[in-house]
Amino acid sequence: MPNVKVARMKLLRPQLWLNFLSLLPGTALTVLTISVAFLRFYDEQDFSLLGYVSNPRAWSNRFTLAALLVAVVNFGVEWNRRNRETDRLAQTEQRRAEEEQRRAEEGQRRAEERERATRRARIEARCRAAEIRFQLDPSLAKPRSNRSSMPCCRNPFPIRPEFGQSSGVRGHLGRFTRIW
Description:
- This protein is mostly helical.
- Helices cover 70% and strands 2% of the residues.
- A hairpin with a 4-residue loop joins strand 1 and strand 2 (165-166).
- The longest helix is centred in the middle third of the chain and has 81 residues, at 56-136.
- The termini are far apart.
- The relative contact order is 0.05.
């Protein structure tokens, strides 16, 4: 029983019916063209079947009009199909461009993160080297010159000239104040 339901579900898909219906105008146009030619160029003497048609010339004209109408419908169906195809290709191109842009932005973001991490590591290494240098030779305790070589150890709250005091943290070397 489940196989029957799956088969029904596949038959009820709209894309399948659209594909089938898009074949109808072309097929109808072919049949009508053949009918017009059959009615115009053959007589009852050639085909006895034409004896059943009371007025073949009138039917030929009707089929010609129907063929013209079907040709216009077929043109519309083809136009729609090509527009859908063009739209699908444009959407695919747009998705691909957006994906490339997203990848480029991701790569740029990663590069910026790496650059920030290396800058941070470089500053920390300089601070550690200055701290180790100071611990090995305390006679180098020249805070002004030592501070300039340790950018991470500078006071983040400098002395403001208008107030004459530090604006927050006491001690000018942040975490190294307990050593001095």
